[in-house]
Amino acid sequence: MSEASTRQRLLECLRTVFPAEKEEVLAAASAATHPDWDSLAQVTLITLVEEEFAVSVPEEKYGELTSFQAMLAYLETPRA
Amino acid sequence: MTLREAILAAARPAHGAPYRLQLCCGFEPLHLVSFLKGHLAERLRGAGPEQSRPVAVSTGVFGDLPGNVERALAAEGAEPLAVVVEWTDVDPRLGLREGYRPALDLESSIIGDATARLSALERLLTGAAAGRRIVLALPATPLPPWLPALAGQASAFTLGLKARLAGFAAACAAAGVRVAEPLSGAAYELRTHLLNGFPYVTAHADLLAASLAGLLLPPAPAKGLITDLDNTVWAGIVGDDGPSNVHWSLEKHARVHGLYQQLLAGLAAQGVLVGVASKNDPGPVAEALARADLLLPSESLFPVETHWGPKSESIRRIARAWNIGLDAIVFVDDNPIELEEVRQAIPEVECHLFPSGDSNAALELFGKLRARFAREKVTEEDRLRAASLRNAAQLEQESLDGGGKESLLSGLEARITLNFAQDPFDPRSLELLNKTNQFNLNGRRWEESEFRAFLSDPKALLAVVSYEDRFGALGKIAVAAGLKQDDGLYLKSWVMSCRAFSRRIEYSTLRALFERSGAGAIRLDWQATARNNPVRQMLDALCGPVPDSGPLALSREHFDRCCPALYAAVS
Hints:
By secondary structure, chain A is mostly helical. Chain A has helices at residues 3-17, 23-27, 39-53, 68-76.
């Protein structure tokens, strides 16, 4: 899986929740900076990521994956 | 549907007033809301572009199912309710999220409290079911793992609990609540339940939402099934083997054909039109259909088309006799070539292969057919449908045979009854409004809550028309829904079953509406559709050539001048 495709697929996950945003806004988005990134958006985003990438996000990661960049880094980290 | 697909489906552009649903549950509804919105939006879109509406789902507070139901029922309007019960709502000690110290009399205490809670919920739901659409889903989460029982054992406690739940569900169903069938497969996810209060895996949330959406907005059932005979209704070729040597019994290894006959008999009894398209000589077919051991009454098959011409021609003739659209017909044949001929000639007809050599595949087909013709209840009109179509064919024949139409109509001994009662709610009136295409003033479809709200308007006038003559009863065949205005009546919807054509019932209905409302004029919300030419013909006859969309004003004086002779007794 290439980096570009992971990035693009993750952008689509965010676009599903924030459909009005441009790509550059989505790529910089986080719970701290985006006004609509609330707890409901966070849960929805995690589920969309799990669905899209067929992964199960560990419970301890829920509180960490609160930005596009953190999610991208998590998805690009090799797992056993 | 994935969560992403659900969110995107709900976000697609839609117009019209929102379809509003109250979702009542005790857990955090989270993705269930998204899936419900997605499935409801798809169903509304599937019913036609003009039915496309945004979907709004409101929810209550966490941990208070009965309170959420009470508040939803107390809210204005008659919005539909989807109630999802989980074991935690039956008794908090049956959930896995909350901790408690077990007491010695835990089981009897839970049974007692659960019975009281279910009874209270039952009173709420059964008391409200007559006034609005309610759908109900029963617990899908597991019971706590510390209840005493052997591995694989159903304990008396568990069975007692489930028996009380079943009693609650049965009482709700009897009152008109639509109860969802239990879903198979993994449902529970402790991880999300602990993290955010949402108890389901997304696959279960999707299936549950699809099931509830199907109960809230069931698809219009197909109206007619046309079947082949050889190696379909029976095993064997009647022309080659002879009428007494075609089989459908277990002893002759042909039970699957007997099952199919029973399915057809069941569908016919529910008002589904069942016809035959067979490439055969008529004689042997008539003889085989007259056999006493046939498992479906042969009179439930009408018309029976037996000849050697293309089956697509038979289907077109049967559709004309039934007076229904080709898209409301399902065709079943064991021969793929015949199916292909029909598919190419009439793409609107839904075709199914009868897998005569594969019993399991046949059972799967029977399930599909049952679902395609599914209806919640069988009404008197359903039972009368096939007989009335046969009578209509006889009526047409008598008209052709001589005497002319006036002589025929005057000798029908027709009786028309108009019922103006708006309470209690009559589901047949809504069914007619939502499934009639040909004699339909404007093609308008009504959502149940919208129709109930309309009926609660003091200015609303609803007429449900029943008909019978010397050929028999047609039952409730027409509905007119309008609003009384200062000096007139504004007719918003008006439909009449195609079974009732050619009897001038529409003119008798208009006359009765003038008399009942005392209106000097009726304004008709006319809109041409692809299929409502019968209404246009009547309006052209009354008003001269009409434009494609109204409203049209019809004065009492003009109507009386243009109305043809009416012979029916109206009450």
